[in-house]
């Protein structure tokens, strides 16, 4: 027998909300955690004063377990160290660290030594085994996922393969989960809990641009494509997005198509930017990177984060013991 995700993290529901750069601020993360699941802010490229401000809002906004997501391959090892310094220094131990992709091996030790839970999202069996052996909670991401893709496997195939190799590990399924029925399938494949991204893009508390939210609620999985066109700021990784005029005709000039504000600073948005359109973005929103998973099929209206958590709580393990421990 092994503990459910909720027991490990100290939450009520075995549900992780993905830390999504630009979309998941403290407002969303705290709402999800207050509803009994594990919220998470997207740290993305934030540093210094802007990162501190987000951490302050996060810690003040909930007294429940909550996370900070960082992306090793986007910022590089040195900047990741600086971001981690801030997270570990400026937040209490109930704040867990979530990483998209494998970090250098010393990062596992560093986070563990700080007494934090570490959640690592992977797309292959090899990475999942390595992350679990280093003590992390493993999120197995399938190609159904919205956003950048870490592998080529379907979600439940990856979950089942990892469960066979790791009968005792805490395993979380990600990709294409928009409904409680889909979550049930992932649990049946061997997951101890699920991680949702797209389903939380369209909630009231998300910072996604209203056009992006509405597009997600209207879209079907067939309206998404896997592409590499939104490469500026995050090169060389395929991503699943809503199809746009840019994904249809990538041979366009790399002009600026809008403006956005991050922290206190205003930036121009180039066509092909990997940054999502947020509440503060203006310009040609319809051409920007709107990451979206096959899960959008089940996301049909804007709701509050707590309603999403309540829906999934009906089918996900609480703080129990799950599985046979023998795969
Ligand atoms: C808009 C959006 C932004 C994302 N940004 C991040 C991110 O900053 N860090 C991260 O670890 N994963 C990010 N992801 C990927 C998720 O962690 C996860 O793999 C995916 O959302 C799961 O599939 P689903 O969208 O069908 O639920 C993002 C996903 C979306 C939809």
Overall mean confidence score, pLDDT: 96
Structural class, from helix and strand content? alpha/beta
CATH fold node name of the largest domain: TIM Barrel
Order of helices and strands: EHEHEHEHEHEHEEHEHEHHEEHEEEHE
* The CATH C-level class name of the largest domain: Alpha Beta
**What ligands are attached or bound here?**
flavin mononucleotide
Structural domain count:
2
Strand order of the largest sheet: 2-10-9-7-6-5-4-3
Overall body shape: globular
**Overall radius of gyration:** 18 Å
CATH architecture of the largest domain: Alpha-Beta Barrel
Helix content: 25-40%
CATH H-level superfamily title of the largest domain = Aldolase class I
Low-confidence stretches: none
Quickly count the helices: 12
| Major beta-sheet overview | 8 strands, parallel
SS strand fraction: 15-25%
Number of strands: 16
Distance between the termini: 10 Å
Describe this structure in words.
By secondary structure, the protein is an alpha/beta fold. It is built from twelve helices and 16 strands. The protein has helices spanning 5-9, 26-34, 48-61, 72-90, 105-113, 125-133, 155-165, 180-188, 198-201, 210-218, 245-248, 305-313, and strands at 2-3, 15-17, 39-42, 66-70, 95-100, 118-122, 137-141, 147-148, 171-174, 193-196, 224-227, 239-242, 256-262, 265-270, 282-283, 321-322. Strands 2-10-9-7-6-5-4-3 form an eight-stranded parallel sheet. The protein has a three-stranded antiparallel sheet with strand order 8-12-11, with no helix packed on it. Strands 14-13-15 form a three-stranded antiparallel sheet, with no helix packed on it. A hairpin with a 2-residue loop joins β13 and β14. The longest helix has 19 residues, at 72-90. The relative contact order is 0.17. The mean pLDDT is 96. Flavin mononucleotide binds at residues 18-21, 23, 42, 44, 69, 71, 100, 121, 141, 144-147, 174-177, 196-199, 201, 276, 291-293, 295.
